[in-house]
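SAMPLE LOG
Freezer: B-3
Tube label: C17
Construct: single chain, 351 aa
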Amino acid sequence: MATVTLDRIAKSYGATPVIENLNLAIADREFVVLVGPSGCGKTTTLRMIAGLESVSGGAIRIGERDVTEARPGLRNCAMVFQSYALYPHMTVAENIGYGMKVRGVPKAEREAAVLGAAQILGLEPLLDRKPRALSGGQRQRVAIGRAIVRDPDVFLFDEPLSNLDAKLRIEMRAEIKALHRRLKRTIVYVTHDQVEAMTLADRVVIMNGGRIEQAADPITLYERPANRFVAGFIGAPSMNFLPAAVAGGALRLADGAAFPLPRADLRDGPITLGIRPENTAEAAPGAPFATMVVRTVEPLGPHTLALGEIAGAPVTVQLEAHARPEPGATVAVAFDMNKMHAFDAETGAAL
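STRUCTURE (predicted):
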């Protein structure tokens, strides 16, 4: 059982705390992605699991083993780094098998393991090439192959796709997802890219300031964010946030625009309205609307995004594909209030 348990983990650098009282249980064969802004502690958490960073408090268990003080080589984890870290003078086969060679694995066993990894990753035609003759995606597959031959309990990925172009990132995401299904191993994956997190993970762990804001499957995070931070982090473009007030069964914006409120559980008083761009549209005649002042327009093919302001707050609104409002123009915008989110105006907690 390759479960990973972080029990009240803490990490400080001198007097500066980076992570405090972090608890996370990762199931056997689960694909968990740690995501968050730069400096949130996600890479530090991954490195503590790997044993590359010591913990300042708490315990780490892999399966039934307490590995808190164990050196990296005894944890049976394989890490794939952002940089490929390939030996330039070695062939693909030699790079993949180098760790086994250092450990004294017999040549026949080593070659069989290298060939098996190459077959999984589609590297068979490239085994005799040097890294300089490979594309970025091929180099990353070699780095993953080096991890596979270790036959680890847990794979650890530290932003492995950040050096690739957009097209390759999409292709490699699909390959890593397929690899997880094939190997049936536990994966802990770090990225700053929320789209990458949503497409890969069984469960996404959103971190901020060294703590976990929410851990859930991607759809739950999208549809039921725990707070304003999670709501703003998940989704592209980001959710719009508008100061509003609930009064008499209606929701009113600061400029006086009013919308019927589909929720009876919200008390009268100030809230922050959250509405995603895909849940907005140009208002039909006679429908409730808010007035948007357009600042810029982004045609995207299937639809057009208009960026501007409503009631003094910055917003992104989704319009039909051929809409081209001029900067400074006003647009009547309707909200799908059945898809609205409400947040406490002070704490940001979901209501």
